[in-house]
Each structure stands twice: as structure tokens, then as C-alpha cells.
Amino acid sequence: MSAPRRCPWAEGHELLSRYHDTEWGVPLRDDRRLFEALLLDGAQAGLSWLTILKKREAYREAFAGFDPEAVAAFGPDRIEALLRDPGLVRHRGKLESAVGNARALLEVRDEHGSFGAYLWAFVDGAPRQNRWETPDQVPSRTGTSRALARDLKRRGFSFVGPTIVYAFMQGVGMVNDHLVGCHRHRAVRALGGAGR
Q: What is the pTM of this model?
């Protein structure tokens, strides 16, 4: 039995393949899971996604299971402790950003009812279904990711440039960027507006 065809970026390591096959592109609407994705995408800036996946469990432990209310309460002493944690990307700006983003997320939640409701409004509540055939057709940013990045920054979020935001949108299923030849394209497309 031959291996399933995957998007090329997901080949070469079991962690990448598993993430691609079970999570990437699946619509997420749960605020805690969306916060996890935002935090990890911000941590990835300048690094490989594999590096972040290898550190994911350490992030889960260090950031209170990605509970935005708990992370929003982190103070300077907690940041200093995180900077000494070898399981994390020890970059002060990224760690402080995670705390600031948790606080901004809570404000968005208060205004919109949930962080998910706010985010999904940028794609009219349903995933954008793309039909890319080759990796070079997949954009690194779009007009929507630029608009969302601008609005997130206006609301006090950081490490949310349009490229990071587009990677986030791909990961949480706001867009389906599985290549049409990938075994996950049709399965993710079938999810439509459903999600976790």
C-alpha cells in the first residue's frame, strides 16, 4: 500500500506528517485552540514549523495549556522564568507577545462574544476553498491576511504580520490550502464550515 500524497512541506518528518494529516486546515473555532495556534505561529517567526512542533508540549506546559485567561495574568517574573526554559524559543519579544496577545484576545472576546467569531468574520464564517496544484501557487499572504493583520495590530496584538497571519489562517482552516493532489484536500473541503 503506497503512502498517501501530501503537501510537500509535510514530508520528511513524522511530526509534520501527523500535523498535516490531522490538524492543518481543519476549521478551528475554539478560543483556546485558536490562541494556541496564534501563539505557536508567532513563536515560529524566523524558524521552521518542525522546530515549533518539537517544542509544542513544552509550550503547552509553560503556557497553562494555552488558557488565554491564565496567560494574560503572567507578570514580569513569569516572563523571566520562561526565558530560562530550554523547551521554548527563548526570545523575550515573542514571549512578551504571547502574554500581550492573550490580554488582547480577552478584549476581543468581550467585544465579539468569542475570538473565533471575530476571526471567522474575516472569511464570512466559512473556509475559503482554494484549488492550488503546485506549492509555488500558494500565496504567503493575501488581502484578507493583510486586513486581519492590520486589525489585530490595531487591537494590540504583536507578531501578527500578514505572512504570520496567513500561516495562522491556513493552520486553523480559515483557508483550505491543501494542494488538490493531496489526500487531505477533499476531506478538509468536505468539512466546510464545521470545525472544532
A: 0.95
Residues 113-172 pLDDT 10s: 999 999 999 999 999 999 999 999 999 999 999 999 999 999 999 999 999 999 999 999
Across the range 96-111, mean pLDDT stands at: 98
DSSP character at residue 87: T
Rounded to 5°, angle at Cα 121 from 117 and 127: 100
CATH of 8-191, one of 3.40.50.720, 1.10.3210.10, 1.10.340.30, 1.10.287.380: 1.10.340.30
Query: How many helices (H) and strands (E) would you count in the chain?
Result: 10, 2
* Dihedral (Cα; 105, 174, 166, 45), 10-degree rounding: 60
Distance CA 20, CA 173 (A): 12
Cell numbers standing for residue 169:
489562517
CA distances to 47, 122, 157 from 92, in Å: 15, 30, 15
Cβ atoms of 86 and 55 within 8 Å: the answer is no
Residues 176, 188 contacting (CB under 8 angstroms): yes
* pLDDT bracket for residue 85 (50, 70, 90): very high
3-state DSSP call for residue 146?
A: helix
Whose cell is 486586513? That residue is 147
At residue 128, φ and ψ (nearest 5 deg) are -75, 125
**For position 160, what pLDDT does the model report?**
97
